[in-house]
Amino acid sequence: MTSRALGRGVLHPGRGATVISLSRHKPAVRLARIVEFYWLVRWDRRGLPAYEQKVLSHPNVHLVFEAPRAHVYGVDRSLFVRRLEGAGHVWGVKFRPGGFRPFTDRPVADLADRAVPAGEFFGPEVDRLNAGVLGGPADAAGIASFVDSFLLGRLPEPDPVVERVAAMVEHITATSELRRVDQVAEEFGVSVRRLQRLFAEYVGAAPKWVLRRARLHEAAERAAGSGGVDWAAVAADLGYADQAHFTRDFTAAVGVSPARYAESGRAEA
Question: SS3 helix, strand, coil % of the chain, rounded to 5?
Answer without folding.
Answer: 45, 15, 35
